[in-house]
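Re: weekly structure request thread

Next one in the queue (291 aa):
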Amino acid sequence: MHIWPDCIYCILRMAINTARFITKDDKEIKIFVKQIMEIDALQGNKWDTTSPAVIKDVWLILNENFGTIDPLDKTKKEQNDKALMLYPSMKDYVFTNKDSLSEALKLSVLGNSIDIMRGGVEKLEEEIIPIIKNISISKKQVKKIQRRLETINNLVYIGDNCGEIVFDKMFIENIKRYTNIKVTYIVRSLPVLNDATMSDARYVGMDMVAHVVENGIPYPFPGFTLHAVSPAIQQLIHESDLIIAKGGGNYDTMTEDKMLKGKTFFLVESKCQPYCIIHNAPLGSLIIDDF
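Done, posted below.
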């Protein structure tokens, strides 16, 4: 998906919020904003690009200006810690449900919508099970992805954010309970935004339920594109029977690659108007989209 006008606002907000997280010096932030405003896409001069491609350029300028590679490292750990605190109650609910695979799938999609940084952990612990029980999601799409899982041997799962990765772990655990599918979980090679890297995957124990690999992209890129990943990942994708990709960054970039068409499912939340329009869904809807 190429950028929409809405994307410009979101990218600028993200950039300024991240800069303010790093420094309180308004002069430094103004210099940073002036520099990123020179990016063609943020001036409305380049519409044939994706949000992750623009964010990559913003993040490189941020790294250079503020001398930090992973400015959100503490926040990412907090997200993982809070999600891990929810894990026991989620596991108890899912593993004792008669349709645990379906509930775990719903939980994985829900993971893309919950902002782990909002509210206290205690509040989330009180609300997480009612949220799962009352969640609205396409039963047709749930059945479609379940049927595919019954017929495959190799699954590639492309992760997104910290915190959310714990929800993915729950889903993968359930897949492994009922199938002999080999699951490979792909994370970002370099830090960008609050996306999960190898250290995050190991921290939450993803390496205990799946083979975890880095995407091999040599720059901070919050998405997935075949022309930039390592040769090993290209081969892995080619040999896979099914791909599950989480989040908007992966959706935006992967839907531009027709080579991925026919064996990819996206698990995302409709977080903005472009997504609402594309999927004909209300804001905040949880979406399973096959591509």
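The longest strand covers residues 182-187. The chain has two domains: 5-66, 73-290.
Next request, please.
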